[in-house]
Amino acid sequence: MKITEVLTYHVRPRWGFVEIRTDSGLTGWGESVLEGHRTAVLACIEEMKPYLIGKDPSRIEDFQSVLYRAGFYRGGGVLMSAIAGIDQALWDIKGKVFGVPAYELMGGRLRDDMPVYSWVGGDRPQDVGKAALDCKNRGFSAVKMNATEELQMLDTYEKLDKVLERVASVREECGKYFGIAVDFHGRVHKSMAKVLAKKLEEFDLMFIEEPVLCENMEEFKEIARACNIPIATGERLYTKYDFKRLLNAGGVDIIQPDLSHAGGLTEVKKIASMAEAYDVALAPHCPLGPIALASCLNIDATCYNAVIQEQSIGIHYNVGKSVLDYVTNREDFEFRDGRVSLPRLPGIGVDVNEGLVHEENELFRIAAEKYAEDTSAPDPEWKNPVWRHRDGSVAEW
Fold first, then answer.
1. Which residues, in sequence order, are CB contacts of 138 under 8 Å at separation 6+?
2. Total domains in the fold of the chain
3. What is the pTM of this model?
């Protein structure tokens, strides 16, 4: 069996799909995207095509080595996100060859299903108490929310008090044992992170996420000493070498590699095993589409330290299209009592709605052409918002 074509697609709201076709008729699907840089990632896949066309798709480890090592310049969000989608598609093909889910080829499952949490509150969190109660009434046992709006390196206690009020509203609405995760989103600098983390202790949080950016990973130990809340991070790390430095730095309790950013199943499986040796839990990052989610669940199935799975059904980023619009096996992604079953179909576990994918890609192409001719037309490419403090300086989003 040989690879004959590698195709890429832009789909709403901000995702990129990759399709690998073979001369046997089997096709594999992956999800390659770096939010806000989707076009760059899909262009990177175009550059990688010569390493793929005509080759045996079963040699996943070899592809991983070639695409990572043979390019000389390594790592980073764009390169590793491109590799991630290719890797997912190759595992999709391999599972279909043997007629089993991908996790069966990674040692088999060690659990039957996976707990999931839901997002509430949006970028600028509000009405989180009612939103969290709605999630609880729909069977979820945990939610995650953004902590703050903009915070400067030294900011006011008034802003911190508003964070506490919002978290308190979730605890009051949902009860003592409902799971609450608070995402600092890298918006909080060390001086304020220590204060806020300490003040949040009273709410018995599931974890705090990205209390500072991984660029400052040596500070996690200091924040951990300031509070008794598990610390999660890792969505902006891309290789096992990045996570090696994180794990050695200490202070982190949960890692959050993204299956569409950190090299796909092959790389994240290795990262998860590294974390297990440090007694660190795994909670893959996934505010993305169905192929990314199914890829996460295949990894969760085989990793002892996997604890909970993020998913983006209903998240505030999903404008125009949502996760299950792109699959025909929607029933495989139903949440029951805050849990989701492991993938059932051979491969990654997604039966892609190919007609919709092609339709969305064509809509993107037309919109991109209009925008190129007239920048007053809507830009079809999702962009990260640019936030500024009152003094005009750029704020972390």
1. 335
2. 1
3. 0.95
